[in-house]
């Protein structure tokens, strides 16, 4: 597991079962500072994990700590430092956004006067300043998602849990929401756990990721570390006299001491161990008289990491 | 000085209003008890339809008005016809008998209030947001119970108290300060016991469903149905009179009568000759405590068992 300085949340061999469904089975992970993506397909155990972090459930086995405390045992103390925006549309439709946000601020211990002013601040921050006295039920889906974000940050939590915050948003609203999440994590300095089944949005805003697959953690760590492992050089070739050139080039490169594999009839993937690999590849291409269609240095994307480690129920 | 005023900087010609917006919160954070009261107040406001569109205010306010109406009428009669030949004031019920006039209002209010307190949170799954705060399921339920019992006090304590004060101002109330304060204490004791029992029962039913209409109908059915069934058993079939202690529309008022040290309701037909004895006070108190505890246990069991994130 990659080293994470001063983990905010740690889980060791966490299991949780709901009657016949094994939601988490031996999940071990560490979540550090900044924005962390909690990635997995629907049913992978993301929401269960958020419930465990909130101290709403007790793990069947294993342990989970938040800020060094067991959230089940120190529930109120831990939750006072958390903000949570649920996946579903939970806000009461007949209450003004400002009243909802102020109410949640009070529940988190803020005196009424402070709660009132911070509710306005939080709604301005998410772009709903002018709309803050409208009933939630009259707002668009995008606005309601923003209200959920506002109620989660109003009490200035140290850790923010966002469960599928872009659900139901169109591409433009989604981009705005991701920008807000990035702003909250970077500019406001909150740790954020962003639960999502969408690879690209996790990749877009997260500095770290925990990938869940059927209740197991299949990868976790900083995005930079995960995606920079084993950079590769991809060479795509044209056919020569109807023959597939990739196997012959791969063989030639291996004879030269490189790690190369034919990925299809016209594509060769070469491990980039050192800069001298470029020279060796250039020479092999020139010696063989290959016609190069594309030459690309590739680092593993989050999707590659996921595909390499997870099974068929993959995120979108 | 407010924080916004702190942010206004006026140093020289280049001065500008600096509005940083959202900032870290470094003020005081109050404890769980503050959260409990905040939720209780918010729930009470919801029950009464406050800070909501006008249509949500109609039923609760009309019900409360119905509960106060007889008291206002009685005080008006005493005030306007003070020395009539038959002394109308002698026919005016005291606070102890007042509940007989507002039984329907109390039952209706209980059946409306508690579903509004519990059902929307479950239906919209806002319960999960509440439980992500320092509240846990027990403190959440405590908040809801405080809210429901608190608003029920509006119709169980307020009207008889108004009647007492009104009569006292017309020199028709208890004689002397001690008697007056004793009656006030009886009103509070009876009102709290009524609120506790109806609050507990009316919270138990909404804990079984997330639909307000079903919960209100269920509460009314249970309260009125238990009265009808026990009456048939005792009065129609000649069953043991203690079965009446299971009548939820009767038992709380029986207890209130005992608090006012008044004779309870008869347990047999009143044909002018045979006045059957009321339930014993021991049975009434025991059944009241038992009913309240069972209803509270059902509510707690249901709220604790509600899934919020899975």
Walk me through the structure.
The complex is a heterodimer of chains A (316) and B (310). Chain A is of the alpha/beta class and 316 residues long. Helix content of chain A is 35%, strand content 26%. In chain A, the strands form three sheets. Chain A has a six-stranded mixed sheet, with helices on both faces. In chain A, helix 4 (112-125) crosses helix 5 (141-153) and helix 5 (141-153) packs parallel to helix 6 (171-186). Chain A is elongated. The model of chain A has no long low-confidence stretch (mean pLDDT 87). The model of chain B is unreliable at 1-6 (pLDDT under 50). In chain B, 64% of the residues lie in helices and 0% in strands. Chain B is an all-alpha fold and 310 residues long. The A-B interface holds A 18, 23, 47-48, 50-51, 54, 56-57, 75-77, 79-80, 82-84, 86, 88-92, 94-96, 99, 103-104, 106-112, 114, 117-118, 121-122, 124-125, 135, 151, 153, 155-156, 161, 163, 188-189 and B 2-3, 21-25, 27-32, 34-35, 38-39, 42, 51-53, 56, 120, 124-126, 128-136, 308-310.
Report strand % of chain A: 25-35%
Mean pLDDT of chain B: 85
User: What is the distance, rounded to the nearest whole angstrom, between the alpha carbons of the first and last residues of chain A?
Assistant: 25 Å
N- to C-terminal separation of chain B?
A: 46 Å
Shape label of chain A: elongated
Q: Spatial order of the strands in the main sheet of chain A?
A: 5-6-7-3-8-9
Task: Identify the overall geometry of chain B.
Answer: globular
List unreliable stretches of 5+ residues of chain A.
none
In total, the number of strands of chain A is: 13
Query: How much is the average pLDDT of chain A?
Result: 87
Query: Structural class from helices and strands of chain B?
Result: mainly alpha
Count the helices of chain A. How many?
11
